[in-house]
Amino acid sequence: xxxxxxxxxxxxxxxxxxxxxxxxxxxxxxxxxxxxxxxxxxxxxxxxxxxxxxxxxxxxxxxxxxxxxxxxxxxxxxxxxxxxxxxxxxxxxxxxxxxxxxxxxxxxxxxxxxxxxxxxxxxxxxxxxxxxxxxxxxxxxxxxxxxxxxxxxxxxxxxxxxxxxxxxxxxxxxxxxxxxxxxxxxxxxxxxxxxxxxxxxxxxxxxxxxxxxxxxxxxxxxxxxxxxxxxxxxxxxxxxxxxxxxxxxxxxxxxxxxxxxxxxxxxxxxxxxxxxxxxxxxxxxxxxxxxxxxxxxxxxxxxxxxxxxxxxxxxxxxxxxxxxxxxxxxxxxxxxxxxxxxxxxxxxxxxxxxxxxxxxxxxxxxxxxxxxxxxxxxxxxxxxxxxxxxxxxxxxxxxxxxxxxxxxxxxxxxxxxxxxxxxxxxx
Length: 427
Fold this sequence. Notes:
The protein has about 425 residues and is mainly alpha-helical. The protein has helices spanning about 5-20, 25-40, 45-50, 55-70, 75-85, 90-110, 110-130, 135-150, 155-165, 170-195, 205-210, 220-245, 250-265, 270-275, 280-300, 300-310, 315-335, 335-355, 360-370, 380-395, 400-425.
């Protein structure tokens, strides 16, 4: 192992330790960790920039701007009160309903866009019912990652796998992953509703006050709402067709955001409002994290670990599937799943040249492990960090430890269910 590789591991582990300790803000830790790699020559600036996933950042910024403008219309309060009335303002049923909606939207759109749309609804509802928003937010994070597993467009790892293996189509992802994702969601929602049962209580008076409210009164600007819905419709149509259009999701999100700014901004103040609402701390945290993981990739650490792990299986499909499933889950819980999946794709393809003829179980194991593994820790997936950033803005920070106590056991249960599924269906 080279000195640069040792430095990369050391800086990554120290940075990770500081992020967990929460003594210094995670954004400062991630950026300084990334800069230290540059200053010590472990990775050069060009390589560092190459490892920053600008598609992810562009998608986040674009959707944050769209959500910030749409929030001014009052539509999120409208949706919140409508949803609460459907479940008669029962806190437990509300948790299940919001989580289920989050999972479905995450499958149809992507989990980052979904949590950006759902978080304001959640804050509005919990504020009115005087409930702690954290059980709802944590449940939605977990549901978004499970829902995102179900389709090709739901989570970045699936998009990467689908683009690398042409025979794994949109329909193939639904056929192979939708049913198991739904089963895992039902199990997880039962666990969460039981786990948070003591937090899911409110006064009858607050319920009655909420049920008496007319959702239509919440809409403050109908003309602005129509403009927002028009642009959101165009943006979502773009997400559904982005592969056919040969456009990245960031291009579509940013086009939608700036089109909406064009047709709604009256002065500089409107522009400033939209940009102030962008969660810049989360954006810069991602930049630092991408560079930190880039250091591990550039020095060959991730490739070396993956190759060693695959060598242990001795070419056995069942052993390789289980190893990829569990290794992907644990790796995705602690490092961003995008660079990990990028490393694993060519390694699985190489296994096809080493005598393993049926690679299908390996691809589904990678998809399930990488997507569901994101529930393991607060930095396991983009959606987790977005919700944590929004929660901090609202005065309800989600700590690393608070999340891991719930997320990690649920991740283990999800992967155990996936193991049974992979074995029974493919092996």
